[in-house]
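Propose amino acids for all 205 sites.
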């Protein structure tokens, strides 16, 4: 039934329009995460030797490709490294993990820092206003963009008033997210019939 849904969508897409194609691919990935993961796992298991041979033959090419990607995607690399450091000390609030909205918001200051750097050549850091080492959360509402010099001079200082405000803001964000989740679940329930089948699926069939 899911495949029928996408077949119906495919017929309406203008494949020459990159925006429509990109949106279709994004929707497909979101709705087929498990299927895509399983396909990737199967391919990896069935082609281990083939992949090893390719990596050995193309070692320098792969290394160069990685270097280019890192150079052209500094914001994404910095965001990933910051998340990794935060995970090690468990600084990411549990209710924010795997949240697509928060993931998008987290990317904004890192992209902004890269834009500033490209404009004036001055090194920028994405800083936690309430430092992680002092118990601050790895959260989009706790980030700011500073020059590297400003960040080093600040070090681990955190203003008590600012820390209190961040705590309040984080709590409010958690309440809002909880309300949004409830509203989403209720709207989904209204779109299903007694059998649990989504009404959009029943309309297609």
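Proposal:
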């Amino acid at each position: 039934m899911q495949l029928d849904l996408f077949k119906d969508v495919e017929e309406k897409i203008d494949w020459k329009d990159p925006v429509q194609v990109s949106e279709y691919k994004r929707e497909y990935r979101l709705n087929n995460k498990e299927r895509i993961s399983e396909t990737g796992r199967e391919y990896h298991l069935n082609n281990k030797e083939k992949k090893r041979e390719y990596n050995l033959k193309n070692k320098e090419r792969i290394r160069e490709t990685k270097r280019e990607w890192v150079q052209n995607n500094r914001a994404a690399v910095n965001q990933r490294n910051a998340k990794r450091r935060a995970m090690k000390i468990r600084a990411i609030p549990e209710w924010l993990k795997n949240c697509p909205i928060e993931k998008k918001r987290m990317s904004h200051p890192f992209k902004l820092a890269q834009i500033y750097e490209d404009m004036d050549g001055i090194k920028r850091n994405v800083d936690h206003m309430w430092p992680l080492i002092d118990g601050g959360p790895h959260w989009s509402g706790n980030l700011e963009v500073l020059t590297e010099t400003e960040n080093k001079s600040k070090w681990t200082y955190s203003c008590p008033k600012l820390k209190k405000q961040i705590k309040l803001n984080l709590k409010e964000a958690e309440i809002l997210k909880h309300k949004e989740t409830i509203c989403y679940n209720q709207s989904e329930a209204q779109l299903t019939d007694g059998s649990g089948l989504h009404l959009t699926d029943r309309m297609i069939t």
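The first helix runs from residue 2 to 12. The two ends are 8 Å apart (CA to CA).
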